[in-house]
Fold these 2 entries.
Entry 1:
Amino acid sequence: MNKLSGKTALVTGSSRGIGRATAIGLAREGALVAVHYARNGQAAQETVEFIEKVGGRAFTVHAELGVPGDIDQLFSGLEAGLQEHTGQTTLDILVNNAGETLPTGAAPEEVSAEQFDRLYAVNAKAPFFIAQRALGLIPDGGRIINISSGLTRVANPSQTVYSMTKGAIEQLTLHLARHLAPREINVNTVIPGITDNGNTIFKIPEVREQMSQLSAFKRIGEPDEVADAIVFLATDEARWITGAALDASGGSLLG
Ligand code: NAP
């Protein structure tokens, strides 16, 4: 425990799901965590309260990504929170986790230009510009962890555009890793498989059973199982890993 004591972290989209579990995991290791959210201020506040209850430190940051001014809003909240809690604005760990999908999916023939632009704005453009802006705050030896999806490895036509955006974030990892290696900033991707984020779909027994069959372990992943992989990449134990994509999908579609 306390492998990250004295460190600071931003986890985008940490009001719920994998992001929330990651914020809790990083805070358990001693990091001060900025819990970012878009719409669910209450859930973000609950994440902070949970972290504080177990002895950690965190604060909320609000910014809807994918709209004009998003990066400015995110960083003004982040820097104010860091300043208040640490007296400076150093950010050691960035986790680009926030993401959206088309809730019910859509065949390629049915995707509108607006839907396409929105998914790219939130899932690909925002992480790029968050990383770009964060570079002014991340010291040598820092970490960037981008969250992709198992759908970059297997075809699912109803999620074509979502999967394209996740391909983009894996490319971001590859090229940033090389670019930032002289500063010993490690950049990696984590690839979750189907993970129970509390969405109502996970409450339907038949759907659950079907989804479970995709994992080699024949069950659905829990957010903390993905978060543990993310937290590992943030620790010193992962110092020799950069430009990598770590599969945290419970062996989905291993064959
Ligand atoms: P989730 O439960 O749906 O939560 C999404 C989080 O992102 C929330 O905190 C949400 O904030 C935030 N967010 C969404 N759109 C945003 C926007 N436009 N601006 C700012 N914040 C936004 O997510 P999850 O299922 O844990 O997924 C986390 C990451 O893992 C995503 O990148 C996702 O693509 C990836 N992933 C998930 C699965 C899975 O099965 N769950 C599988 C593969 C990959 P609010 O609460 O304020 O809305």
Entry 2:
Amino acid sequence: MTTVIDGKQVAASVIEAVKSATAALEAESHIKTGLAVIIVGDDPASHAYVGAKSRMAKESGFKSVQHTLPAETTQEELAALVQSLNADPSIHGILVQLPLPKHLKSEPIIQSILPEKDVDGLHVVNAGKLAIGDLDTGLISCTPAGAMIFVKRTHGADLSGLNAVVIGRSNLFGKPMAQLLLNANATVTIAHSRTKDLRAVCRNADILVAAVGRPEMVRADWVKPGATVIDVGINRVPAPEKGEGKSRLVGDVAFEECAKVASVITPVPGGVGPMTIAMLMANTVIAAHRAAGKPAPKF
Ligand code: GUN
């Protein structure tokens, strides 16, 4: 029997743990965990994501602040806002929603966030800590951290002897995911668009993680029988069967056929997606504990 991971349920269990840790910190230290989310411009998809993040922060018991800036905001104005949030002791996490409007450079903005408030895990200090295996003082990018929770709940914390293949080499996901798997003792391959015989590489994976942004690219004959398959892709494709102009979401994995071969698989939607916001909340309450000099909760 194939297990289909229910990402909503796992995310809800993470949020419950976040709520307890938030309440305990407030009771013991009178510190309310604070998250600031910045959005520039009016991209509807980004506004939907940011709204969901702000709502979840409130539900978790945080002080939740959203800064909505007009599309014409200058680099200097945005930088000044980040500086003021860096200096604000009531804010423990800062997230700048990406992508920014074209005239703004995102990298200097991301790198100007204090690493201890970088709850997206995108600062080079946090990327570097992950690279040297320091998982105790850095903050880990939310989507790989969420995907890793699925891996650990399936295989335990020690992946010794298991082959893991990550398809995709982005800074936001592929690289940190590979580092997390390596840190847990897996034998890790990072595959990408220039990899020779991708199918054969993937078929060797006990843990296959797909993050390429190509709808249903991973087929059944790419999957090792009994493997764990984690699908990080979110692709909108036309769905004429639902009516003219309609669309649906699919992952990077051809779910129906791969589910017949894998022993554990994540669906899209409802797999890794819900974990990203949950891990953002987890990172924020971790940052608040560290700022208070308290041992941080583990997720
Ligand atoms: N835009 C889409 N995903 C993300 C994310 O994880 N973090 C940020 N900051 N922006 C995003």
